[in-house]
Structures are given as C-alpha cells and as structure tokens.
C-alpha cells in the first residue's frame, strides 16, 4: 500500500491564482499567488485527500475576471490496487464559488481574454486617480447594484472573498449597497490602455434615526498582487471622503474588521484626529471625553467607538513612559476599556442572582476569578500597547 501521507495536500499550497493580462503571463511562475485560507471550500483542516502532487490552477483575466480552471496530479488514490476502498475528496468543489461559468480549455480562455480586454472598461462613477510609489496608475470607481452589467462582474470579483476573508458569504444585491472598486490602468505590450481589477469594498447604507444613514463597510479586499502599494489605504480614504461629503451621513462603521484592515483604518483615522483641537497633548492626558467623540464624528464621520481607540493610540504617543505616574495613568485608562466586558458579565450575573435565579456551574466557571482576570488583563494590555506602537510607527 502506498504511503497515504503522499496523498494528502494542503489546499492553500495546491491552489494557485494568477491574473492574466497577456498570453505570456501563463508561463510566468512569479505571477502566481496562493490563498490565505481554504476552510470555507475544503473544510476545517484545509486539506485535500486522495491526490499525489496535486495542483489546482485558477486563472482570471485581469480586467473582466473570466475564469480558467485546471486540475492536475500524478496519482489518485482511487486508482491504486488494494486501496481498501479509499475514495479521493471531491477536488472540484472549488467550482461552486465560480459564478457565471468557467473555462477548462486554455486556448479558448486566452482568446476570450484577448477579445474582452480590448473593450473592458471600469464600471460606475470614477472617483479618483492616483499613483503608487513605483509609479503605477490606479483609478477608483463607485457602483450601485443597478449599475449596468456590474452584478455579473461583481460576482466574479466576490469569488476571492472565500480565500481571503474569513466567514465570507455572497451578498444579496439591493439598492442600499455601494461598491468601490480599484483598477490598475496600464499599457499592454502594444501600447494600448488596459485595466486590471485590483480590489474592492462593499458598503451597506443603514438607516440612522430619524433621517440619516450610517454606511457600514462590509467587505474590503485588495488582491495580493496589489498589496503593500498603498492601494488599500487610498481605497478606504476614498470611501470615507465620499461619505463625509454627504450631509445625511451620521458616521461610518465597519463590520467585523480583520486585523489588517483595522490597522489600516486606525492609521487613516489617527492621521486625521491628530490635528484636531480636542486631541491636543494636554487634552489627551485628561481622558476621553464626549467632546472628543463629537468632534471626530462632526469633522470626519468617525464613530465614537473608533474615536476612543484613536484617543488611546494618540495618548500613548504623548505619554512619557519613563514617568511612572504618567505611564500608570495611561495603562489604567486602557485597561478600563479592556475590562468592560468582564465587568458587564459580572453585573449581569449579579442581576440574575438578585432576582432569585440560580447561575449554572458552567456559567460561573466561564467567568474568570478576579485574580485570573487581572492576569488576563495584563496580557491584553501588553498586546494592545505593542499593537498601538506599530500604528504610531506608520503615522
């Protein structure tokens, strides 16, 4: 019996993506990039059983994002003699996230890619143009669900989220969605202007009583070939500027931000608030106030929860950590926020007991003791300060 370990492949290593601009890109191995996660496609262990030397190639035409799909391997466990009835996993489950069909013939895909790239144009309203440090040109467009032909394109763009955004799901289009898409504008080998899809964000316009809206960023993704070039920062900045200009917007929120996106958001917001009068060094030392929250909301549509985080970041910048009292006061201020959930749980538990109800043993055990909480709080604080220092290095 063959060594079955050779028939187990990590999905994030087997799957290779590539953005195709011209035919020659097919043979350029340097252009490939891998997914960050695969559990939403191939299960929690992110492995594929039953194939030796498995490769799953997924090519996207750079602009319209038509898909070519190819699977190859050297051996399949089903074909081995005396395999004791073992069956290979269904590797093709990946195609369930490919909308609007896909190509399995490379030549057909390349012919379609060449034809469509000549006419492909970004969808929607052009909001801005910018250059990166390496002198590449990008444009950002805003679309609605009703933008002609956009939904079909968005479905292909959205297929990336399962590999790069945890707990992802496709959205149901309606009139309250707004989409901000970044494209690279480039010249092909013939000197013709072409566009490559670089990333996007989806924003939902929630109602805010009595007559306002509260935009919430739901998905935010810059594709790996375009990361670390400032595209994400400019995309978020463009979203904020777009909604700040609207008088009926109360504030801008974010839904379940990833660590990377929250860092980007914090850097962006800190650069704005650092110049506000209420965020002066003297005011920061006196603690977070409603005036701070209100000015951040009035000037930049930053919600109070986020402005509190930025207050802590900027206060650290203005805290003399060599001064024992100043540093202690800062730590206590941050720990006060970090400890809010623990205190709320204790209050809720006491309220239940005061009403004569019993608390289950499991519920009691789920809440750490005072000593355990202090230890956990110290660890949380150290991680928070280290994270804040990383943000301060960028602003």
Helicity, as a percent range: 25-40%
Low-confidence segments, ≥5 residues, pLDDT <50?
A: none
**How far apart are the first and last residues' alpha carbons, in Å?**
59 Å
Evaluate the radius of gyration: 25 Å
Number of helix segments?
A: 14
Strand content: 15-25%
Strand arrangement, largest sheet? 8-9-10-11-12-13
What structural class do helix, strand and pairing data support?
alpha+beta
The major pleated sheet works out as:
6 strands, mixed
The number of strands is: 13
Mean pLDDT: 92
- Overall geometry comes to globular
Q: What order do the helices and strands follow?
A: EHEHEEEEEHEEHHEEEHEHHHHHHHH
Folded structure, characterized:
- Strands 8-9-10-11-12-13 form a 6-stranded mixed sheet, covered by helices on one side.
- The chain is α+β, with helices and mostly antiparallel strands and 395 residues long.
- The chain is globular.
- The longest helix has 25 residues, at 370-394.
- The model has no long low-confidence stretch (mean pLDDT 92).
- The N and C termini lie far apart (59 Å).
- It has helices spanning 11-14, 39-42, 106-117, 150-158, 161-164, 231-244, 259-273, 281-284, 290-300, 304-317, 324-338, 340-354, 361-366, 370-394; strands at residues 8-10, 15-20, 47-49, 51-52, 55-61, 67-72, 75-76, 125-131, 137-144, 177-187, 193-208, 212-222, 253-254.
- Helix 7 (259-273) packs across helix 10.
- Helix content is 38%, strand content 21%.
- The protein contains 14 helices and 13 strands.
């Amino acid at each position: 019996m063959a060594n079955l370990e050779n028939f187990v492949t990590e999905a994030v290593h087997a799957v290779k993506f590539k953005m195709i601009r011209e035919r020659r890109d097919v043979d350029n191995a340097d252009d490939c990039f891998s997914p960050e996660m695969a559990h939403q496609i191939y299960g929690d262990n992110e492995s594929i059983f039953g194939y030796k030397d498995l490769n799953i190639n997924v090519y996207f035409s750079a602009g319209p994002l038509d898909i070519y799909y190819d699977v190859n391997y050297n051996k399949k466990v089903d074909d081995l003699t005396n395999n004791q009835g073992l069956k290979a996993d269904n590797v093709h489950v990946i195609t369930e996230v490919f909308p609007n069909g896909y190509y399995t013939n490379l030549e057909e895909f390349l012919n379609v890619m060449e034809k469509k790239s000549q006419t492909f144009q970004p969808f929607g309203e052009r909001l801005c143009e910018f250059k990166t440090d390496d002198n590449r040109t990008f444009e950002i467009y805003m679309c609605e669900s009703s933008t002609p032909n956009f939904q079909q394109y968005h479905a292909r763009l959205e297929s990336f989220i399962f590999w790069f955004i945890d707990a992802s799901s496709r959205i149901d289009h309606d009139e309250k969605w707004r989409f901000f898409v970044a494209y690279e504008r480039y010249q092909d080998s013939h000197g013709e202007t072409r566009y490559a899809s670089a990333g996007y964000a989806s924003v939902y316009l929630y109602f805010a009583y009595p007559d306002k809206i509260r935009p919430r960023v739901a998905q935010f993704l810059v594709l790996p070939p375009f990361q670390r070039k400032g595209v994400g920062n400019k995309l978020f900045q463009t979203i904020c500027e777009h909604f700040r200009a609207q008088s009926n917007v109360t504030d801008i929120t974010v839904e379940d931000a990833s660590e990377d996106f929250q860092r980007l958001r914090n850097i962006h917001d800190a650069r704005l608030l650092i110049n506000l009068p209420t965020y002066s060094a003297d005011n920061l030392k006196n603690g977070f106030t409603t005036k701070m929250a209100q000015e951040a909301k009035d000037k930049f549509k930053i919600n109070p929860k986020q402005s509190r985080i930025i207050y802590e970041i900027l206060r650290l910048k203005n805290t003399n950590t060599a001064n024992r009292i100043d540093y202690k006061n800062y730590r206590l201020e941050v720990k006060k926020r970090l400890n809010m959930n623990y205190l709320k749980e204790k209050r809720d538990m006491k309220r239940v007991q005061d009403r004569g109800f019993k608390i289950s043993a499991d519920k009691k055990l789920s809440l750490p003791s005072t000593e355990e909480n202090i230890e956990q709080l110290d660890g949380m604080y150290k991680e928070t300060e280290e994270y804040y220092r990383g943000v301060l290095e960028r602003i």
